[in-house]
Amino acid sequence: MYFEIDFNSDEAIYMQLRNQIILQIAKETIKDGESLPSVRQLANSLGVNMHTVNKAYTILKQDGYLKLDRRKGAVVCVEITDKSAYAQEMCKDFEVMVAQAKCMDISVEEIHCMIEKIYKDLTDS
After folding, report:
1. To the nearest whole percent, how much of the chain has pLDDT over 70?
2. Which of 41, 51, 65, 105 is the most exposed place for a label (fewest CB within 10 A)?
3. Is the separation of the CB atoms in 37 and 46 below 8 Å?
4. Euclidean distance between CA atoms 14 and 57, whole angstroms
5. Are residues 116 and 87 located together in one domain of the fold?
6. Distance (Å, rounded) from C-alpha 122 to C-alpha 125?
7. Is residue 5 part of a domain?
8. Cα–Cα distance, 38 to 72 (Å, whole number)
């Protein structure tokens, strides 16, 4: 399990961490049922505040990627509770990304190719 934080990025550190954990779950680098480092351990290894890691873990729990267990800590447990609600939320995010692509004159075909490549990269890892 390896996380890299870009302290110069405009993206919040907790979101960088959240996104990297989701990517590693999708790539199965982090497997279902696997425990993540404790908040204190991960904060120390990344050189960030414990509250930053705690916020990332809390969001991951709310989004259905983790269970927080007093004995085991943060455990990967992807739960699909309402796929249609999640799909609607994704559609909102996609709408903005597609609008950005359209403004930058990126075609639908190019967008499809990008998505297919990303999906393939995640499943072939």
Report:
1. 99
2. 105
3. no
4. 9
5. yes
6. 6
7. no
8. 9
